[in-house]
Amino acid sequence: MSPARFTIKTAAPGDCHLVDFIHWLNKTQRLQLDSYAAVHRWSVQNREAFWHTCLDFTGIETDAPAHARTLKPGQQIWLDQWFPEHQLNYAGNLLRFRDDKTALIFSDEHNNRQSLSYAELYQQVSQLQRWLLAQGVIAGDRVAGFAANRIETVVAMLASASIGAIWSSCSPDFGVGGILDRFTQIEPTVLFAVSSHCYAGRINRHQAVLEKLMAGLPSLRQVVLLPDLYEAGADDPVGHSDVVHWRDALAGELAAEMTFAALPFAHPLFIMYSSGTTGVPKCIVHSAGGTLLQHRKEHHLHLNLQRDDVLFYFTTCGWMMWNWLVSGLASGATLVLYDGSPFHPKPSILFDLAEDTGVTIFGTSAKYLSAAEKAGVQPQQTHALPHLHTLLSTGSPLNAEGFDYVYQQVKGDISLQSISGGTDIISCFVLGSPLLPVYRGEIQCAGLGMDVKVYNQAGKPVSQEKGELVCQQSFPSMPTGFWQDPEHEKYQAAYFARFDNIWTHGDYAEQTAHGGWIIYGRSDTVLNPGGVRIGTAEIYRQVEQLAQVLESVAVGQEWEGDVRIVLFVRLQADATLDDELIGTIKLSIRNGASPRHVPAVIRQVTDIPRTLNGKIAEIAVRETLHGRPVNNRDALANPDALKEFEA
Ligand SMILES: CC(=O)CC(=O)O
Fold first, then answer.
1. Which of 171, 423, 443 to mutate to test the pocket of ligand 1 (most atoms within 8 A of CB)?
2. What is the distance in A from the centroid of ligand 1 to the CA of 137?
3. Is the Cβ–Cβ distance between 267 and 244 less than 8 Å?
């Protein structure tokens, strides 16, 4: 077992934005902050001063009258208005750098490599902006992407944002039903689309999907087809007069200087979607100012992102980590985009890419790390990653053994930042800090300005005790609302139903003795056998240590007036769930967690249902097990996997 506390490379003096920020605060605000805990405390107790200084310190360009207010409080925290008199443009802030440094590198399973400098990126955005304006796109229009994680998608999003149009994207692995569930609600006028896409060596052609999208979205005026990477010459599948090719949309003359629409801080920038596993996905609207400020805070102060960093995040553009990644342009860093399976054509493909492109910050999911470990990926021995200094993990809780894997098999002297928040806030509640040590299994800290606590069942803040993760005060990247929810009814029901005027995030969590954080799973899937509350991640942590188990899902089944834990496991190809393995699983849960955690029933399945963003669909399994309908199968990447659970 690894030590509880890892030694990490800390930023050299003068090289750490957070240290500079603290010095600057101490000087300008006459403070004596001397630790992360102190600056966090100050930031939530003085949140107007904090967010204002954060806006200035991170170099966000805005227009505002002298003495403009930072916060106009509302009756309820979701009605608070941040920076009500400030105007800005998200794209303008991301395109501050216009030099020859590489802005974007793209790669895929075939090692198709493309790159764009900051100057070229600015040019392409400018050309596409002119085309969008020529189509009559105006601020507030919705522009959608059925798009891969490619350079063109970033250009399309920035060009839309430069006008004030609202960007919303789904990745090409979403089924037609799932995409229409999302896009019919927001009525886009322009769609950027890929006509083919490659995943795990398979090329999927999307003509039929595109036909259905065009038929199902009468609001569309134009569809722009991205260049076809996989079947050259076959990129005109639809044959409609309102379908144009990327190259034609980009053919306009270059303007000397692009104009960025100056828009209110709260102007909508992105529409994101809830997973949709409990009904039609909710359309979550995020503001330009809130997103930008929160991402600048996380990148600049928490991640210490520098201009010479090469930032990679393994994501599709249907997940909020894509939006988070792209905001890294505001730091002038090089961003690496990858589209495809993380294990094809070989399990080490992502680390090959990291080695080739000199990645300094490698972002991924806990699920990827666990699968990479099982697949025998050991970059420490096989790859030269001299520049890699940080690894980020999110998507589900990274357990203590995941920390061991990173420090033992990936790189021994990096900063491992487990981060957590989500689509709802397009950012993090808890994440990393360059000033704090990394404790095995723990997220380092709560974000600056984020008044995060754990509440017990009675709604009282607790420490070193499991409970609901909440945020007691508003912050700029709260959604401005849900689309078509003018009275905020759905919005309130989603986050404010549990505790009055307090954001309840739906995570079952604990604040540790070190001031760190552990997430035990989603609170709506907490298991409750005999009245004892157990987070599903507590069980996964034990089970997934076993070499035979690839992944698992645990649910609570109503049984004889109580609840019993039922565990489903997906095993390695050469393993079967015999009595011996059942015994081993039970023993490891009993020893590693407690007798209370031991499942009453363990079953083998061949597949486990996942949401489109790759998260295990625990609620869908639970509902199926009880013979109740699963509301929205289109929200699942592999709905057929539920059949086995019906049986
Ligand atoms: C930052 C996150 O929390 C991302 C996610 O898990 O959706």
1. 423
2. 31
3. no
Q: Is the CB of 385 under 6 A from ligand 1?
A: no
Pocket test for ligand 1, best of 321, 324, 610 (most atoms within 8 A of CB): 321
- Does ligand 1 come within 6 angstroms of the Cβ of 395? yes
CA 510 to CA 332: how far, in whole Å? Answer: 36
CA distance 601 to 605: 13
Which residues make Cβ contacts (< 8 Å) with residue 199, sequence separation at least 6? 109, 173, 340, 341, 344
User: Is the Cβ atom of 432 under 6 angstroms away from ligand 1?
Assistant: no
Per-residue pLDDT tens digits for 514-572? 999 999 999 999 999 998 999 999 999 999 999 999 999 999 999 988 999 999 999 99
* pLDDT bucket at 239, cuts 50 / 70 / 90: low
Distance CA 453, CA 446 (A): 9
Closest ligand 1 atom to residue 324 Cα is 1
The finding on whether 563 has its CB within 6 A of some atom of ligand 1 is no
The structural domains of the chain, ordered by start, are 526-645 (3.30.300.30)
Q: What are the φ and ψ backbone dihedral angles of 558, each rounded to 5 degrees? A: -65, 125
Spatial distance between the Cα atoms of 52 and 163, rounded to a whole number of angstroms = 25
If you average pLDDT over every residue of the chain, what do you get? 94
Q: Could you tell me the sign of the dihedral formed by the alpha carbons of 421, 492, 609, 558, in that order?
A: positive
Measured CA to CA, the distance from residue 63 to residue 403 in angstroms comes to 44
For the cut 90, the answer to whether the pLDDT of residue 435 exceeds it is: yes
The protein residue whose alpha carbon is closest to atom 7 in ligand 1 is 422
CA dihedral 393, 395, 401, 402 (to 10 degrees): -30
Given the CA of residue 420, which atom of ligand 1 is nearest to it?
3
Is the beta carbon of 447 within 6 A of some atom in ligand 1? no
Report which of 90, 620, 507, 18 is spatially closest to residue 299, judged by C-alpha positions: 18
- Beta carbon of 419 within 6 Å of any ligand 1 atom: yes
Q: Which residue spans within 290-358 are E strands per DSSP?
A: 310-313, 334-339
Q: Which two tokens stand for residue 561?
A: 């007036």
Question: For residue 632, what are the contacts with CB-CB under 8 A and spacing of at least 6?
Answer: 181, 276, 277, 278, 279, 280, 281
ipTM attached to this prediction: 0.98
* Nearest-10 crossing angle of helices 151-163, 118-134: 60
Amino acid sitting at position 609? P
Q: Return d(Cα 323, Cα 338) in angstroms, integer.
A: 14
